[in-house]
Specification:
This protein is of the alpha+beta class. The strands form two sheets. An eight-stranded antiparallel sheet has the order 1-2-3-4-8-7-6-5. A five-stranded antiparallel sheet has the order 9-10-11-13-12, with helices on both faces. It is 37% helix and 21% strand. The termini are far apart.
Amino acid sequence: MKGMSLRATGVLLVILAASAQAAIWPDRIADFERKPATSLSVSDRALYGEFGLETTEQADYVSPTAKFTATAWRMRDSTGALALFEFRRPAGAKPSKLAKLAVTTDDGVILAYGNYVLQFTGRAPTVAELTPTLETLPRLEQSQLPALITYIPAEGLIPNSERYVLGPVSLERFEPRIAPSLAAFHMGAEGQLGRYSSLSGGPETQLAVFSYPTPSMARERADAFSKIAGAMVKRTGSLVAIVLPPADPDTAERLLAKVNHQISLTFNETPKEQKAKGFLGMVNNAIIFSFIMMGFCLVAGIALGGLTVLRRKFGRPEDQGAMITLGLDGK
């Protein structure tokens, strides 16, 4: 009985933990009341797992006049949410002002916020309705989005064609012509893909840009990518850009020319500036100290002079302050 009791307690704790983990959607959103929430089954577990999926929740919200369905995917971090958002975003979606990463769909809206991907179907919420919900999301993580997404050229980009690559699974899904061993994810690589229309009316061009921790790693990978037959490769800083055939050479050349990595320093002063300012500070301190000593000597001199005047005024002998000598001349 004791063993069964312990087992039952363990099962209850697991159930309670799962219930607490699934509590994403609030009881109400504006005038809409939530119906019982459920978790979603994920068909592509490998891809979602690589993106860092932690949990999901879906709930229906109803009011006397309308209803909608809210779905949430909570990821490990904001980069995983970005990757899932780009993957789930429909091809015909239009930009939305609900969030930085948000689009309107035929039946609602989908957005990424921090480490969450949220989708509303049947009705899109307003900013006033959505803001309180975003503020109460459990285990919200809002780190900065990867800078890599800013290096994909915007001109000629087919809308909603971007795909973020975090590992071998997503690379195989979105660009199987590049082997995972070439991308070398064990070196900390991440990639951003985008499709572009050809200027000459030929086939679409897919651009892949991979980022690496250091320029030397990127240089090594650029040499490896160059061995792909027909590939056009460019290294810039710690980025490597690749265009694979078939592609219009002129379009590929223009795309590669627009990928340029600029290093932004996160500190305010360079080491040389710091050394120069340290030396100038030392000189400045020495000058200040010299003025302090000069002032001290001036005050001491004035005090001594004043003391001499007082002695004369009160009839003290003049030789009181004279130098004392010892008569050692032999007399």
